[in-house]
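Morning - iron/sulfur cluster inputs below, output right after.
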Amino acid sequence: MARAHSTAGSNCGFAGFSGYDLDLDKAVDLIRKSGARLVGVQAPEGLKRAMPAVARHIEEKTGAKVIISGDPCFGACDVDMLLAMEVDLMLHLGHAPLEEGPGNVIFLEARMREDLDGVVEKAALVLKARRVGVTTTIQHVHKLKSALEALEKHGIQGVVGPAEGRVSRAGQVLGCCYSTARAVDVEEYLFIGTGQFHPLGIALATGKRVVIADPVTGEVSDIDTDPLLRRRFGAITRAREAKRFAVLVSKKPGQRRMDLAKMLKALGETRGLEMFLVYLDNIEPDRLLNLGAEAAVSTACPRVALDDAAKYRIPILTPPEFEVLLGEREWGDYRFDEIE
Ligand code: SF4
């Protein structure tokens, strides 16, 4: 396997460190078989540094010309459609495919080399249940089997939910989809990966305890949902002062929820709020201020409202939070935003 070393970073779980494998032999083979003469390459920020070498490798091995997508890439939801239309074949690196997607795009996962067994065995010592749901992000999915064996050594049965909906690999979670966690009937979960966002999503989607085993730091910890819930309650309270709401709709193919946005606009208008739809690719603070919005509801990637809120001067709510604001949903029935 030809290897591209990288640092990685995307909304779907890549962290800033090196140690990923990209199967470039497979990419070369697919390009040769397709007869493509012009190839696009797209990757999350952390893999971008490796892209000139990847492009050179593909050009040398296939004779095809390569164009690298220079725009940010946050996930499989974020295929560069304009580049895909420009080229014969496009390689989207670092993410597994979502259900939807243009036909000439091939997804090539970036697999983290890091061994999980040590940190999983450490987590086994703090897990209380003898049967736990095991979840991870795409770059570790290929190591789930050995993680389950590591748990077994401690008398713990790891249960992995099947791939369905937006998720293409068993046990995988996305920041916008926790179906593999919900699919298993357990009292406790183990999340193997970096960051707090995915385990927060699992905890809020299931209402169960989540233990994090971080293969980068080697640390094991419990997730606490209270700080996030306090921040989100504060955002809803601030948004109650607003009369002008922007309803944000993403142009990214796997984030576009136009029907939901139209429904929220209509709902807000029935309560006397001024609501306007805003269609945009990258959501950035200044764009909303220039529109004069006093608050926003984001139907794009859930991380915009939940993870990036501090960047914005106005409150940004998720669709379920907007329902709380309007009294359509009880705060006690708080739901983490997920994309169907
Ligand atoms: S919409 Fe989902 S897949 Fe796309 S960046 Fe956000 S969390 Fe990841």
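Note: The chain is about 30% helix and 20% strand.

O.
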